[in-house]
Automatic annotation (TrEMBL):
GO molecular function, a single term: alanine-glyoxylate transaminase activity
Start and end residues of each Aminotransferase class V domain: 51-313
Keyword tags: Aminotransferase, Pyridoxal phosphate, Transferase
Gene source species: Sulfurisphaera javensis
BP terms from Gene Ontology: glycine biosynthetic process, by transamination of glyoxylate
Tagged with keyword Transferase: yes
Needed cofactors: pyridoxal 5'-phosphate
Protein name stated in the entry: Alanine--glyoxylate aminotransferase family protein
Family note: Belongs to the class-V pyridoxal-phosphate-dependent aminotransferase family.
């Protein structure tokens, strides 16, 4: 049972779809590209979604390279490992980054963001991590953050690699310029695809000069207009992501946001009743990752004896916390197994029941075997 923050368990039909190998310049593949962009636009409520072969890092870096220029002033607010990686990518691009950093576990208030923008009148862009996977915390108020930035007239670029589909995100309505995600997280597809969703403003800001071709989002979108990709794509991974996007459509994106929130809240409640100390403040707890310190040593190793795999900490939290990934198609059955095993390890009773909202609807439920 894979309960790490990605890759995640995938539904049977997604796994099967991933084995497809066909000509990428064929009508069959054109249908996949067109169908996938259409569904991803719907799920993001965006105008275009670039579909790239690669990992979440490619999504973030193509977003940065295609929406900033060397020398441009960018403000960033890291609060963990992925926030620092975002800053690193911005520096590699040659932007002039003003960094406001906080220790992992925190986020920034709207007031702090406003003030930072006021202190940097020459800045054009704000770049943030939506859901900081390394600490199980998030900007839960993404809409308000976007609002503050846009009202000040700056662009906003968002790394939501581990957030998309687990929180409400409305790219066009909120006017997010660009937001990046990957296939192996809450979309519940196989690893290997990077997505960058854009609003109309975001599209008009795309740059093309002096870009490595694979990071040039305009080039990808131009080919997608014909149902193609500029270079040989991971055909099977595209097909798997199309199936995952269809299953997301069947569940309903709002239900998926709710399911993530309900499952994760329940797991936190039970774990804290067992003596876990949860990482971060309650106001910014993540919908996809539970981070904390178990009441006994070697908890992760003991869980492995139940065939359940979770993650450890990253960066400065290595060996200090555990992280449980509850994203994708995690449901009441998965949560029960995790918590029953935890209770056994700790010598406790498990007499809790996950909420209804934590259940997967059919046909997704029968497509996932949590054994
Ligand atoms: N950003 C965030 C917030 C992530 O959680 C991850 C991966 O977990 C990445 C970026 C990088 O994604 P990948 O490992 O797929 O390149």
């Amino acid at each position: 049972m894979l309960l790490i923050p990605g890759p995640v368990e995938v539904p049977k039909s997604v796994r099967e779809a991933s084995t497809l190998v066909i000509n990428h310049r064929s009508e069959g593949f054109r249908e996949i590209v067109t169908g996938l962009e259409k569904l991803m636009n719907k799920h993001f409520s965006s105008t275009r979604v670039a579909l790239l072969t690669g990992s979440g890092t490619l999504a973030v870096e193509s977003m940065i390279y295609s929406l900033t220029k060397p020398g441009e002033k960018v403000i960033s607010f890291p609060y963990g490992e992925f926030g620092r990686r975002l800053v690193d990518s911005l520096k590699r691009r040659g932007t002039n980054v003003k960094v406001y950093e906080k220790p992992v576990g925190n986020t920034f208030s709207l007031e702090e963001i406003k003030q930072a923008i006021d202190e940097n009148k020459d800045a054009t862009t704000v770049a943030i991590v939506h859901n900081e996977t390394s600490g199980g915390v998030a900007f839960r108020n993404l809409e308000d953050v976007v609002n503050v930035v846009k009202r000040k007239g700056l662009k906003i670029l968002v790394d939501s690699v581990s957030g998309f589909a687990a929180y409400k995100i409305l790219v066009n309505e909120w006017k997010i310029d660009a937001i990046a995600t990957g296939s192996q997280k809450a979309l519940a597809s196989v690893p290997g695809m990077a997505f960058v969703a854009l609003s109309k403003d975001g599209i008009s800001e795309l740059v093309t000069e002096n870009l490595p071709s694979y990071l040039d989002i305009s080039l990808h979108l131009k080919f997608q207009d014909k149902g193609e990709t500029p270079f040989t794509p991971a055909v099977g991974v595209f097909n798997a992501s199309l199936r995952a996007a269809e299953l997301l459509e069947i569940e309903g994106i709002e239900n998926r946001w709710r399911r993530h929130e309900a499952c994760v809240r329940f797991v936190r409640e039970v774990l804290s009743s067992y003596g876990f100390s949860l990482f971060g403040n309650e106001s910014n707890f993540s919908n996809t990752v539970v981070a904390g310190v178990p009441p006994i040593p070697d908890f992760r190793k003991k869980l492995k004896e139940f065939n359940i795999e979770i993650s450890g900490g990253m960066g400065e939290l290595k060996e200090k916390i555990i992280r449980i990934g509850l994203l994708g198609v995690v449901d009441d059955r998965a949560v029960n197994k995790l918590l029953q095993a935890t209770a056994k390890i700790l010598g406790k009773e498990y007499d809790y029941r996950p909420p209804e909202e934590c259940k997967l609807p059919e046909p997704l439920r029968e497509e996932v075997e949590w054994s």
